Amino acid sequence: MEHDNNEKLQHTASLTERLRDHARRTPQRLAYTFLRDDGRIDEITYGELEWRAAGLASTLAKRAPAGSRALLLYPAGLEFITVYLACLLAGLIAVPATIPHKTRASRRLKALLDDADPALILTRSDCEAAIMASLSLVDAANRACLATDTLELFEAAAPLPTVQLGATAFLQYTSGSTSLPKGVEITHLNIASNVEAIRHGFGFTPDTVMVSWLPLFHDMGLIGSVVTPLYVGFHCVLMSPAAFLKNPRMWLEAISHYRGTCAGAPNFGWDYCAKKIDEQHKEGLDLSSLTVAYNGSEPIRAATLREFINAFARCGMRSTSLFPCYGMAETTLFVAGGPRGREPLVRTVSKSLLEGNRIRDIDADDPDARAIVSSGHVAPGYRVAIVDPDTRRQVASNRVGEIWVAGPSVARGYWQRPDATEAAFGARMAGSDTGPFLRTGDLGFLHDGELFITGRLKDLVIINGRNVYPQDIEEVIEEAIDFIEPNMCAAFPVEINGQERLAIVAEANRSLVRAAQQAGASKEDKLRAKDDYLARIEQTAQHICKMIAQQFDVSVSSIVFVKPGTFPRTTSGKVQRSRCKELALQGQLDLVYVMPGSIFDRRGARDALPSQPPALPPVPSAPAAVPEPEPALAASENSQATADAMIAWFRDYAQRRINSRVMDERRTVPPYVVLDLGNHGFFGLQAPRQYGGAALATVDLMRVLEQLAAVDLTVATLVGVHNGLGLRPVLQFAAPAARERLLPMLAAGRQLAAFALTEPAAGSNPAAMRARAVKTSGGWRVTAEKQWIGLGSWAGVTTLFAKATDENGGSLGTIALLVPEDTRGLVQGPEALTMGMRGMVQNTVLMNDAFVPDSAVLGRVGDGMDVARDAMLFSRLGIGAMCVGAMKRCAQLMARYASRREIGTGLLLENPVTIARLERVNAGIHACEALVYAIAEQIDAGAAVPPDAYLACKTATTELLGQAADDLVQLLGGRGYIESNIAPQILRDARVLRILEGPTETLYAHLGAMLAQPDSAAAGFIGGTLEHPELAAQLVLTASTNRVATLTGKRMFETQAAMTQWLDYRHGELAATAFLLAAAERRARAMPGLEGAALACAWARRRYDALSQAITAELAARTPYSASAAVLRQVNGYLDAIGDVEQALPGEGVELDAALRQEQRAQEAGASLPDAAQPAVQARPAGREEAPAPLRDLVQSCIQKWLRSEGRLADTALDADTPFTSIGIDSLASASIAVDLEQQTGATIAPELLFEYQTVNSLASYLAARLPQDVEGQPA
Where is the Carrier domain positioned along the sequence (predicted)? Predict the structure, then answer.
């Protein structure tokens, strides 16, 4: 059977000629748009593209002669397109390839370098280091790697070489064998011919708009999404494959937004959209502009076409837009497809006859029916023949045969492989000279000029659109498993639920056979599952799954081991993959082991071998001793009475015994003050009474802190740090024995407690933490440098945080340790000379290989950040209470002075500016007080409080206190500048609270970013707990509207990412104000007649509305800010005006921070600023990690959600140590799970992590050590 479409197409112009023509005719026309993963948008016009490509071509031509190969290793983006075209203009042969993975692509990279022998390796500067590292792994570090984004572009001193249509343009390396990659040699004529065929078949015009996520180094992405748009002259919108896999809606959103008329993907891409985009996320999608939705590159399933239309018909998707097609790299790309505007043609044929290569139509509801989708009409100028591969003769019209293709875009052959080229490209019909044809290796038939693909003759495995060669998989297995020799295993595809999956058959050795036979002999023998041999066979199977997943991103669905001597081979000893598959599916292999639950497992559940060695029973842990609770009412009354008495005592004591100015000047709180506070219960505010504590409710604790801060912020901070950061971790997380030992001393103030998280290079960011705790016998060896630790050198015990590793360096997550002051190796470092809070020590704490026993661990190993998070969130509420107290003191002093001070217009208190400022302070006090105590009441009621509420409380109260302290100084005039008048110390002490436990800017940005998440916790608390659903809805709508507004129009900042960061900050400020408004109005409703409540509500509403309007106005105006480089240049320009004087005083023992020193002097002094962006040494998990329980549960929940979506939750065993490979997690699944984890954690999570860390435990442990908590560092 043969079809010859002899219609001739015009294809005289090369791609480079078309580029120059577009640049000359329509230089301002948009050529490509690239949507970055972070929301930024890159664009390039035809004029700019031609200018950059020509300039780079001139540069490259100076480095390598025409005809040389240039290896292109680029991430998705416009830089790749520019470089590809530059190579063509310079006469170089481009070799596009994927950037090698740091651990698993070295073999392919080496083979590609050996085969193509590139003269140039081109990349981007941000990828250069990683590529050089990969080159060093394959002994190719001597090869030069050029970062094209840093090269100087030259105007051509001499004309660039004329492109000959018959010259090789690029090598398209197929997704073929890793060890023997084949580079398809594509000429400029091949490109021109194939693009003309595509233009004709797809109906492309200059008005076409394409939207694509396909990889640009692959033929479908390169020819379909880069070359064709450029040749025809239409706009193409691109995004990365990773972006699509993480969020398939992004692709459809782009089609909707840009009114895309063409988009394409392999079958799995359309299937992925239909399955992963739910009804809620279809809202707003408009696919009515899409006229060509092409589907190719892998077998096309009729069910997928039907499901996609059913899923998106409501979004304007039409079945007449579906466009199945067929092609391959060896034909440049396109062979058959269309016609446009017709629903896909599906034939239902007999499955049993098809196995004998015969075609007969039957009813669709027949059990023997198989639906086959037409790949469309053969393209003009191409000839397709259906040939018996053995006889090399054409078959009849009702027969299946190998598809042979001839046409102008069939490639020249495989680069420097004449034998392979002749075998694939030189096929001729038997008994005639008809040819040459390309042998595709695909099976199919022709009917009425349309091509139907039924299967593959060659052994290629296609999973999720990726081609995997079985010999590569077999080679990895042979290398990894000592007893498996060459030609003793076979890899092949099996179909499960309409999808291709990978199966493996391997030959076992005799010791494994004996083990399996023993296990199958009787029930008694089955109970010996811990037998070494049986454990080894199971371990071997799991190891194979893990190796394949790591090397190929492919999940193994089935593994069997056969008896020695029974593995199917040819007489010459070659693997018979087809025979292996046939025998395995028919159950005719002599098996000694089968992976439980696999397609080959025909045993009942009673007979199946265990998929895991029997687990040891869990070790029971004794619950902490909890005292019998008091009745709620009695406890509340006792707490209130205790707090009242403490507050009354402190007011009297402060007047007699506290001298804030002396403490400030001498930089110390007198010992008698600490002792007196301890004797009156201030260091055990929430410790149980049985330990000598006050057992205060949270509401009463806040009252006490408010009173302390109204007298002296330093004293309040001292008490707050001890109770919130020191005592609380012991109360919440210490083992019973440690609590019994420590609480009596801590509650009485006989020992103080410190909290050591902040580090010089990391701040409070756990991902960058450098402190290390290495497991040793009976405890941990700790090395750390902690900075700005409040109460550090005064503390009898310090809660210290470090990255924990096992003896082999395997990551165990973050650990929290109680370190006594007499620990050998603990060194108290220098004190920090702080601006405020001078009476309380803040110093460096050093641990030099100090031993800390296991009994000192707080919580569980790996749960350290849970300890830190709990303490820091609670402390933020305490800071809010302190701010309320200090603001009330500011208001007292302002009113007292203003009521006594006469000015030119009369009494200062009667001045309208004074009235306005005092009313602003009073309103802020009311609103902050309402928020602080609303959160405290929730805690006492046992209700959950989201972190966003603590963040809003801390940021709103500290900013308002800062403003109130400044208002106080300003109102006092000259007196406000005199240290003895209290105001300067309040200003200095208050200043640190805007930094302590997270600077305002960072917390605002986090709070604003969280508003963009579904089911915003901030909105939930405002609408629920604070009883203001209208405000919550308004806040979310405003944030959403503003985000959309930033996607179009002029930018205020250089990048879209900067716009997003700025908007997150502003939205965080707006959210914090919304918390104040909702709390104030709730309090006013609950306490009608409360003086000042109405004014506070009106003030908060004005503040919220003004801030919202200001953000909207800034977005509308779009006044651009300078780029960071421009700002720096301007500042550097001050050097001529004022110099750069750095004082160096003789005998001065205090040095300026390295970050503030002149660069030359810093270098001379050997000073260096630690790089907080660089995380500490990355420890890989080794052995079994004990991951944090909440994160472990989260990871397991996300995987169970994926299993549920696949309909496999009920029959899949999953625990914390189940290998992901054993439950079928592949690259598609990993992307889906990673997206879910990102949404749950708010952090960026790469899908490949599920192949690096292949159990719930190991992945959760890895994430615990790296997920950001509080990004910026500050005194702790």
Answer: 1189-1267
Report the C-alpha gap between 123 and 101 in whole angstroms: 14
DSSP state of 769: -
Distance (Å, whole) CA 1196 – CA 1203: 10
d(CA 82, CA 293): 27
Distance CA 425, CA 409 (A): 12
Q: Are 22 and 46 within 8 A, CB to CB?
A: yes
Report the pLDDT value the prediction gives residue 1209, as an integer from 0 to 100.
65
The encoded tokens of residue 15 equal 């791609």
Report pLDDT digits (tens) over 445-481.
999 889 999 877 766 677 766 657 677 688 778 777 8
Supply the CATH number for residue 640's domain: 2.40.110.10
Cα distances from 260 to residues 209, 257, 284, 1127, in angstroms, run: 5, 8, 15, 39
- Which of 548, 565, 594 is the C-terminal boundary of a domain? 594
Query: Which pTM was predicted?
Result: 0.52
* Model pLDDT, residue 730: 95
DSSP helix/strand/coil, 518:
helix
Tokens 């075609």 locate to 359
215 falls within a domain: no
User: Both tokens of residue 1218?
Assistant: 């189940």
- Higher-pLDDT residue of 1104 and 521 is 1104
User: What CATH code is carried by the domain that includes residue 1201?
Assistant: 1.10.1200.10
Residues present in the chain in total = 1276
**Distance from C-alpha of 622 to C-alpha of 634, rounded to nearest angstrom:** 29
What is the side-by-side strand order in the sheet with 438-447? Answer: 2-4, 383-387, 401-406, 438-447, 450-456, 369-377, 346-350
In angstroms, the CA 443 to CA 357 distance is 9
Among residues 392, 389, 390, the alpha carbon closest in space to that of 402 is found at 389
Q: Is 792 exposed, middle or buried (0-12, 13-18, 19+ CB in 10 A)?
A: buried
Q: What is the pLDDT of residues 1157-1196, one digit of tens each?
A: 665 554 444 433 333 333 333 333 334 446 778 888 889 8
* Beta carbons within 10 angstroms of residue 148's beta carbon: 23
Domain of 831 in residue numbering reads as: 632-867
Rounded to 5°, the CA angle 239-243-244 comes to 85
Q: Tell me, yes or no, whether 1143 lies in a domain.
A: no
Do the Cβ atoms of 1202 and 1229 come closer than 8 Å? yes
Q: Is 868 helix (H, G, I), strand (E, B) or coil?
A: helix
d(CA 218, CA 225): 10
What is the helix, strand, coil percentage profile of the chain, to 5? 45, 20, 35
In this structure, is residue 95 part of a structural domain?
A: no
| pLDDT value, residue 299 | 80
The model's pLDDT over 943-973, given as tens digits with 9 standing for 90+, comes to 889 999 999 999 999 999 999 999 999 999 9
Tokens (6 digits) for 826:
């603990």
Average pLDDT value for residue range 675-683:
94
Instruction: For residue 1187, give both structure tokens.
Output: 């991951």
Q: Are residues 1087 and 1199 in the same domain?
A: no
Distance CA 90, CA 7 (A): 33
Alpha-carbon gap, residue 596 to 612, rounded angstroms = 10
Q: Is residue 380 part of a domain?
A: no
Q: 3-state DSSP call for residue 384?
A: strand
Q: CA–CA separation, 720 vs 752, rounded Å?
A: 11
Q: Could you give phi then psi for residue 517, rounded to 5 degrees?
A: -65, -40
**Which of these, 13, 14, 4, lies nearest to 336 by C-alpha position?**
4
Least confident of 95-109, 605-619, 1094-1108: 605-619
Which residues neighbour 1116 within 8 Å (Cβ) at sequence distance 6 or greater? none
The total of structural domains in the chain comes to 4
Please report, rounded to a whole number, the percentage of residues in the chain having pLDDT higher than 90. 50
Number of other residues whose CB lies within 10 A of the CB of residue 657: 11
Angle between helices 713-720 and 671-679 (to 10 degrees): 60
Listed in sequence order, the residues at least 6 apart from 1098 whose beta carbon sits closer than 8 Å to its beta carbon are 923
